[in-house]
Amino acid sequence: MLLPYITFFFLMLRTFRSLDTVNVHQNISDGETIVSGNGKFELGFFSPGSSKNRYLGIWFMNTSSQTLAWVANRETPLIDNSGVVKFDNQGKLLLVNSNGKVIWSSNSSASSTNTNLVAQLLDTGNLVVKKENKTSDEDFIWQSFDYPGDTYLPGMKLGKNFITGRETYLTSWRSADDPSSGEYTLRFSMVNDKYQQLYIIKSSTIETRIGPYNGISFSGRPQSTPVPAILTYVIDMVVNQNEMYFTTVLIGKDPTFMSRTIVTSNGKLEVSHLIPQNREWMSVSTVPVDYCDNYGVCGPYGSCNIAISPYCGCLKGFEQKTSNETSLENNTSVCRRSIALDCGPEEGFHKYSSMKLPDTENAVYSRNMSLRDCELACKNNCSCTAYANPNITTGGVGCLLWYGELIDVRVYPINGQDLYVRLAASELLELHSSINRKKRVVMVVTLSISVVLVLLGLILALHIRRKWKKSSRSSKQMGSAEVPLIGLSKISRATNDFSVDNKLGEGGFGPVYKGVLDGGQEIAVKRLSKSSGQGLDEFKNEVICIAKLQHRNLVKLLGYCIQGDEKMLIYEYMSNKSLDSFLFADESRKSILDWSQRFQIIQGIARGLLYLHQDSRLKVVHRDLKAGNILLDHFMRPKISDFGLARMFKEDENEANTKRVVGTLGYIPPEYAVNGLYSVKSDIFSFGVLVLEIVGGKKNRGFVHEDHDDNLLGHAWRLYKENKSLDLIDECIRASYSPSEVLRSIHVALLCVQQRVEDRPDTPTVVAMLGSEGPLPCPKKPAFFIHESENNSSSIPLLSSSVNEITFSQVDCR
Ligand code: ACK
Question: Membrane topology type, per the record (predicted)?
Answer without folding.
Answer: Single-pass type I membrane protein
